[in-house]
Amino acid sequence: MLENQLLKIAEDFGSPVYVYDAEKIEAQYNRLTNAFSGVKKLKLNYAVKALSNISILKLFNKLGSGIDTVSLQEIELGLKAGFKPQQIIFTPNGVSLAEIEEAAKLGVEINIDNLSILEQFGTKHPNIPVCIRINPHIMAGGNANISVGHIDSKFGISIHQIPHILRIVENTGMTINGIHMHTGSDILDIEVFLYASEILFDTAKQFKNLDFIDFGSGFKVPYKEGDIETNIEELGKKLTAKFNAFCKEYGKDLTLAFEPGKFLVSESGYFLTKVNAVKQTTSTVFAQVDSGFNHLIRPMFYGSHHDIINISNPNGSERFYTVVGYICETDTFGSNRRIKEISEGDVLCFKNAGAYCFSMASNYNSRFRPAEVLWYNNEAHLIRKRETFDDIIKNQIEVDFSEKKEKELAK
After folding, report:
1. Residue 353 and residue 34: Cα distance in Å, rounded?
2. Where is substrate bound in this sequence (predicted)?
3. Of 131, 247, 328, 357, which one is the catalytic site residue?
4. Which residues of 188-219 are buried (b: 16+ CB within 10 A; e: fewer)?
5. Among residues 15, 226, 320, 335, which is most buried (max CB within 10 A)?
């Protein structure tokens, strides 16, 4: 998006505000589908947790995507957005059997990553096919918090427990219709996927009623100029060849599935904040903005990088700034960044703000969560109103302390 368009949005809708470019989302979706055009059956399930605004979900529905969900609430959002149950896969972790049964009642695809739950579900519902999530014991991902396929991960059923899975299937008479894995996010080396694919294919050979194999996601997107990203086109070429060869050996054209989140929406997002103050200390120049980790926690949580630009002064000379928020704890968005000279009242734009940004926002410090805007067909559409004080207190229940005091006075 152009800087003048973003400035106009900040002026019209106030700050802080999240902005998403629908054209970029569609381009990323098409890039991924084109990379795997050699596969007869391809299914992309957008990971709802990345950005769950219902208008974003409707956009993915329009593009022909399915969705990957991790909670009953995400399933309900998907259904409300127009997705059919068969377009939704439920891939939770650590939830109760009761929650999985509720999801099954809604008719969505069930993905189970726990031997105990698999046995309980198969015993009670042997006629409902399920997918199983495998832990391939591969260390992958840009940060320990987003690497989920290693041996110590809480996610998935170990590949070494396949014999146990087979015994459960035999004892319950249940059907396994899919094999799934997700090794982590921000994976740079496509060889990780290719190595993991061999593990998944070897596992899949042991299940005779499969309809799909799901490789999760974890594709790396660039966060700054010159940054490394996953080579989707090369991955598509190499994995397509391996997958098609496996389908021929298996004797059936299976569906190749992915669950991209960040890859589809990260680069579409911009977070706009206004500079409250420029504070000079003995060693640092702070740009203090009207937001904090209550709105964008990723830099503090993951150490993630978001390019920060001054869209109010794009032609100014550069200075070094540390950009910080207004939360009463350390909330540094970026240290010693070269940014065009900043004045109080300027609008700063944080890039790559589409994935795991608003979806992790909170009301910490009793601050309002910001508005969301979708740039679609060269027009700004408000898709979430900025919260008000009524939103902060609407579910709170006040205790009446006056009654006890009146009784004490009566004595």
Report:
1. 25
2. 298, 302, 329, 356
3. 328
4. bebebbeebbebbbebbeebeebbbbbbbbbb
5. 15
The residue whose two tokens read 């059907």 is: 175
Tens digits of residue pLDDT in 258-305: 999 999 999 999 999 999 999 999 999 999 999 999 999 999 998 899
Which residue type, as a one-letter code, is found at position 343?
A: S
Residue 356 annotated in ligand binding: yes
Does the annotation flag 251 for ligand binding? Answer: no
For residue 57, report the phi and psi dihedrals to the nearest 5 degrees.
Answer: -65, -40
| DSSP 8-state secondary structure symbol assigned to residue 28 | H
Tally of residues, the chain: 411
CB neighbours of 396 closer than 8 A, spacing ≥ 6?
none
Bridge partner residues of 279 (DSSP): 286
Which pLDDT value is given to residue 402? Answer: 81
Which two three-digit tokens encode residue 382? 């408000």
Residue 304 carries which side chain, given as an amino acid letter? Answer: S
By CB neighbour count within 10 A (0-12 exposed, 13-18 middle, 19+ buried), where does 170 fall? exposed
- The C-alpha atoms of residue 82 and residue 142 are separated, in whole angstroms, by 34
Query: Is the separation of the CB atoms in 20 and 373 below 8 Å?
Result: yes
Does the model's pTM come out above 0.90? yes
If pLDDT is split at 50, 70 and 90, which confidence band does 341 have?
A: very high
Q: Largest Cα–Cα distance in the chain?
A: 88
Phi and psi at 200, nearest 5°, equal -70, -40
329 is in an annotated binding site: yes
> In whole angstroms, what separates CA 261 from the centre of its chain?
5
How confident is the model over 170-202, as pLDDT tens digits?
999 999 999 999 776 667 778 878 888 898 999
Q: What letter represents residue 407's amino acid?
A: K
User: Is 302 a known ligand-binding residue?
Assistant: yes
Higher pLDDT, 142 or 47: 47
For residue 212, give the amino acid letter: F
Q: What amino acid occupies position 53?
A: N
Catalytic residue status for 328: yes
